[in-house]
Amino acid sequence: MEQRATVTGLELAELIDEKIEPLYRFALLLTGDPAAAQQALIDVCTACAPQIEAYRDAANRVAFIVAKLRARCLIASPGNTGSSPAIARQFQSMGEPERSALALFYLGIFPAQEIAALLHMSLEDLSGILERGREHLRAAAITS
Questions:
Q1: What is the DSSP string of 83-144?
Q2: Which of 47, 89, 110, 126 satisfies CB 3.0 to 4.6 Å to 116 for a cystine?
Q3: CA distance 91 to 37
Q4: Which H or E element spans position 64?
Q5: Count of C-beta atoms within a 10 Å radius of residue 78
Q6: Is the preceding peptide bond at 50 cis, omega within 30 degrees of 0?
């Protein structure tokens, strides 16, 4: 019989504390709104607490939180970039999974193989998405 490791509230808090900054930046990149990003992060961390035990190691727990946070942010994303700089507007105008792929890659939360798995795509597809995304953002930087 397989034994499950229990995750205490303290362990979950430590995991979240360790990753809070990149998780918040990820949420901010997806929503384009600081308040929406903060609320999404709070909601997801609260909702994930009872389910986190199912994941054995910290990397899988973070992947679970990121997947839930991504889903929550895409729902919360107001689509309003307001007075954001040109590059931020360009980033917000990208579709999915391009925004998520670029955000996860540049924030360094996961290696490329794990990003591809999280977004349900091949490494080849991820590579193409990252290349096109960088070109898209580079063009915005040149014209701004």
A1: T--HHHHHHHHS-TTHHHHHHHHHHTSS-HHHHHHHTT--HHHHHHHHHHHHHHHHHHHHH-
A2: 126
A3: 15
A4: helix 58-76
A5: 12
A6: no
Count other Cβ atoms within 10 Å, centred on residue 29: 20
- Model confidence, pTM: 0.69
| Helix H or strand E segment including 73 | helix 58-76
Query: For 51, which DSSP code?
Result: T
Torsion of CA 101, 105, 109, 111, to 10 degrees: 100
pLDDT tens digits along 21-74: 889 988 888 888 889 889 999 999 888 888 877 887 878 888 888 999 998 988
Does residue 6 register a pLDDT over 60?
no
At 108 the pLDDT is 84
**The token pair that represents 134 in the structure block:** 């960088």
Mean pLDDT, to the nearest integer, of 86-102? 82
